[in-house]
Design a protein that fits this description.
This protein is mostly helical. The chain has 13 helices and no strands.
Length: about 240
């Protein structure tokens, strides 16, 4: 293809026929008789118009990606197969756990690791639900949100995080999530101190001491747990 399209929606006009002719020529050179036999008996002009209409919603980058993947196939793709080649492939479960980690990182003021911007933009409106629900509870909503983002083809840059502390007295977490975070963030002392016969808040004082020393490895959750434990105590 000699140029890139600027079409971004399925309501866009059909692609120029010469683009489809160029695409079909590439496939003829790549697959030879396999490509010709696949469309044997089909009106060639009608076939080109059909592809031009159905590919209208793809961006130039998506079309280039689809063409590049032709080299990986032994047989010429059908129209639906070619459309799937053009779109990025993201596995929903893996994307969910990436989103979980990324959201927690952003709570700490970090960018988070995002393998695809669509994952970030799908996850952001669901951040609260990620804290409150299991994957099985939001599976269908997550898959739908991710698919909708992937279908866009173009995404804004991921913004820098805005560090925000929870409201006083609130963590915004379910008991299950809080327990998991306690384990993940190394605050097991919260549990262990419950059986201590001496200072039940020693773990919290240690965290506050580390904070005063400027320990950057502490997370907001650790500090929040410590602050709440030391309310009314001599820290």
């Amino acid at each position: 293809m000699n140029s890139e399209p600027s079409l971004t929606s399925t309501s866009a006009p059909a692609l120029p026929i010469h683009w489809i002719e160029s695409l079909f020529q590439r496939m003829t050179f790549a697959y030879g008789a396999k490509f010709a036999d696949q469309w044997k008996g089909i009106d060639p002009d009608g076939l080109k118009r059909h592809w031009a209409e159905k590919l209208a919603g793809l961006t130039g980058e998506q079309l280039k990606a689809g063409v590049a993947k032709l080299d990986t196939l032994d047989w010429p793709p059908s129209l639906p197969q070619f459309i799937r080649l053009c779109k990025p492939t993201v596995e929903a479960v893996a994307a969910y756990y990436e989103a979980l980690a990324g959201i927690e990182a952003r709570k700490r003021g970090e960018m988070g690791k995002w393998s695809h911007p669509a994952i970030f933009w799908a996850a952001t409106p669901m951040a609260y639900d990620f804290d409150q629900m299991t994957y099985s509870q939001i599976k269908h909503r997550w898959e739908r949100a991710l698919d909708e983002q992937l279908d866009k083809g173009e995404w804004r840059d991921i913004p820098k995080p805005v560090l925000a502390l929870p409201e006083p007295g609130k963590t915004g977490l379910s008991r299950e999530k809080a327990a998991q975070l306690v384990k993940d963030y190394g605050a097991e002392g919260v549990v262990k101190s419950a059986t201590s016969k001496t200072d039940h808040k020693h773990w919290a004082k240690k965290i506050k001491a580390r904070q005063k020393r400027g320990d950057k490895s502490l997370t907001l959750i650790q500090i929040k747990f410590a602050d709440e434990a030391l309310v009314g105590a001599d820290a």
